[in-house]
Amino acid sequence: MQLSRDDLLEAYRRMRTIRAFEDRIHEEFAAGEIPGFVHLYAGQEACAVGMCMNLDDNDVIGSTHRGHGHCIAKGCDVTGMMHEIFGKADGLCGGKGGSMHIADLDKGMLGANGIVGGNPPLAVGAALAARNLKTGGVAVSFAGDGSSNQGTTFEAMNLAVVLKLPVIFVIENNGYGEGTGVDYAVGCKDIAARAAAFGMPGTHVDGSDFFAVYEASREAVERARAGEGPSAIEMRITRFYGHFEGDPQLYRADDEVETLKRDFDCLKKFRARVTEASLLEADQLNAVDDQVARLIDDAVRTAKAAPYPGPDALERDVYVSYP
Amino acid sequence: MATMTMIQALNSAMDVMMERDPNVLVMGEDVGYFGGVFRVTEGLQKKYGLTRCFDTPIAEGGIVATAIGMGAYGIRPVVEIQFADYIFPAYDQLVSEAARIRYRSGGEFWCPITVRSPYGGGIFGGQTHSQSPEAIFAHVSGLKTVIPSNPYDAKGLLIASIEDDDPVIFLEPKRLYNGPFNGHHEEAVVPWSQHPMSEVPEDHYVVPLGKAKIVREGGDVTVLAYGTMVHVALAAVAESGIDGEVIDLRTIVPVDIEAIVASVKKTGRCVIVHEATRTAGFGAELSALVQENCFYHLEAPIERVTGYDTPYPHAFEWEYFVGPARVIAALERVMED
Lengths: 323, 337
Prior knowledge:
The structure holds 2 protein chains of 2 kinds. Chain A is α/β, with parallel strands linked by helices. Helix content of chain A is about 45%, strand content about 10%. Chain A has one domain: Thiamin diphosphate (ThDP)-binding fold, Pyr/PP domains (Rossmann fold), CATH 3.40.50.970. By secondary structure, chain B is of the alpha/beta class.
């Protein structure tokens, strides 16, 4: 499918929204405004958006502790997300999930997940449900290189092949499982090859290249929709911030992040590509930047002002029913 | 003696044991090069090398299973599971293998492993970084479960755990890593250096497993606690004006039943405090033990002050986390009868 100019502008809007959201969370966290732990997705935007531009609300994604980008790419309300992270009553999950557990049923967002390796098997279940219920939907598991070492991921991949399910395993290889390098922790180095060994197509893409991600994702989604089974895409990417906010990042070279920001920034690459090809004008992109900046400003302002949930909410939603 | 935080004391325990016993090694996620996300294993890889302190992939089931296999053949692994909330993939290995290998082999094999893991709330960690899962380990015959409340005990208990020939779950109250915390979150953070239990010998010593400690003597009511709740209980007793006797259990399996019974027979009243959810929490076991052993000495129903029966909520840190106010209310209730 050829991306229209509107599609490109929408892809840019989502990527820019993620970047602005994360940069702002970084500031607010440093200022002590945000409770809890946050893990920022800045740098990886093209992975989530390149995939999710192929999906609709009928499709399901599962995500990780670094989940803000997946939520935004899948269409979750940015204001509701910000309120959730601040722990407010009108957050997407009533303030009870927080940064690591944002979920949104209507948008096909099965949830961010604080457990490494938590979501791949859930996505397999969502894919099986989609097939049994004939929704036509596919499921996408976003996971990281760290997750690729968990037994749950192996089990999920094998089961998806055995049952030939409409699921796609996206492995965002950002070089580090927390503070330990992929070169050390992933035995065979090639995560896509490992997925392929389970009996599904496994490909690599440059995760900073939106167009490469989009194309690889499109093929995988079409294959899943056609009932041809699962596939895996390893997206090589980097994160611009630490594993968590406050991470001293002693495991990275001094100039590593600066170099990556200069040479490996998916937003810069996207902007250069679409303007040089005269697909979009710089003015259009700048206008998006301004709109996004206002959106984030407003979200933070209202999040700070919003009330916390009342005490009656504490014990609500533990069970569906309880005698 | 040196003044240590709980982090430094735990680090010192592993250092001392690695120095003394070449079969002691440390493994886990980010424990080597990075030194642990809470810095508990800092410097150990540098000092003892890559075979004695090494990083593992993120794979808790595999990490613990490997440790069990090593333990069966003479190694004493000290495993770090980065947060207790991450331990569940390893639960099968702990229950089905570590806890039973001795029993099912008729005593031929055993499993001298220590699984260290930060646990508990008060740090805004939400549902996957704040849980207190001690009861699900206490329930498994064959495992010992240890929970220190200060640097001195942390080091002595960790050395005892490493030297112990049985598998030990060593839960570290992460809110106490850098200082004591009595639940008054609105007050300034206090460093360990202002607490007498931060005076820690630099060499080898042991705090025996299964021995509780009376941290405040009193005659009106026995307060049973462990981990962060020891400090909360002490604050509650001080603020209530009730003459409470606070017992730091230090080990929940084996539990020091003699110390508990002696105290409750003296006071006739008992309040149990823990962070974990209430239903089938370790407080239920303590309550049953007190009832079985002290029934005719009790002057009031036993009170439990616990977390709520919910996942740990992001937005309700200080409603969920047991603070002095809830303990004081329980103390006052038991004193009414």
